[in-house]
Input
Amino acid sequence: MKKKVVLAYSGGLDTTVIIPWLKENYDYETVAVAIDLGQEADWEAIKNRALRTGAAACYVVDVKKRYVEEFIWPALKAGAVYEDKYLLGTATARPLIAQILVEYARKEGALAIAHGATGKGNDQVRFDLGIMAFAPDLEIIAPWRTWDLKSREEEIDYLVKRGIDAPSKKDSYSRDDNLWHISHEGLELEDAANEPHFKDMLKMTTRPEDAPEEGEYVEIEFEKGVPTALNGEKMDGVSLIQKLNKIGGKHGIGLCDIVENRIVGMKSRGVYETPGGSILYYAHGELEHLCLDRQTYAFKQTVGAKMAELIYGGLWFTPLREALSAFTDSTQQTVCGKARLKLYKGSIRSAGASSPYSLYNAEIASFTTGEIYNHADSKGFIKLYGLPVLVRAMMQKR
Output
């Protein structure tokens, strides 16, 4: 019986080349696994291409629900944002892909898993660590780290010589897309001094200057930090994100142009479209301002930053990430209620929030003196709170 390798298959040029390359260099039977994370794709055509190219089998696995509930929601609840901008659309998807690849490798009795991540990027780290976490015994094959092909043109030539049609490509941006976002790299973005050509680039989002002159209100309801309803209508997570992507995209919401620090040490520049995600992060933040006490909120900012660092670095399946998620889930017990936002030409602003667990008390906060808060009490508090300032001033005077 021939040895098997499971390949993470997207239907693009790289993974199409990898199928015959594996056969020639390893003599493995290739089982292609195409994973539906909500990206726009003709899955039937992708499956047929894999089989025509030489795959022994091709599975299309729909994991949108799992992606939202097991990966997006934990990142959202933690407030995980990488380097103040990136909402981790690619980084949250990779550990799930790795997990699925291992599951299919076990089902097929495969001895290896292959992926098309390059030797310069983050994804090789995320895939490898995810596979290692569940299957340390399996060989990992990453052709970009070993083969002699150096360009898209050489890949196409490789296929032509073997009588295999190369997948068509309508543009030259390097893209990754799923339910949560679309990323763009390459072309004018490779010079950090250039303004992005949004008119040619964007797929899901209207340029803010082209967005409607009339703004739009959205109301999002949360239960324990998880969004459950949009404008009063209960929705599952996948449907809610899809709907918000359309609404946010129409109003130019969620564009991010960032020069980020990759895991491998270099800086890279990308543009991300995350319209629905940006709305959800903003709404979730408004409820946390309402429902979390000062100390919890402050420490959670540290946790969110660390969580983003772990997710970006491919360390999802680690004790620390699990512990941070456990802390986050504890803080989310009271993050329930509704946040109303106004979307207008690329901007989001709060239009009010309410929660049965709100810590905001109008009687205390109001300029009108109430029974709970006595202005005179603040004198003694300030004196004690400022004691180190007073002692230092006295020392300097001496």
Observations:
- The chain is about 45% helix and 20% strand.
- The chain has two domains: 4-65+85-169, 175-292+335-354.
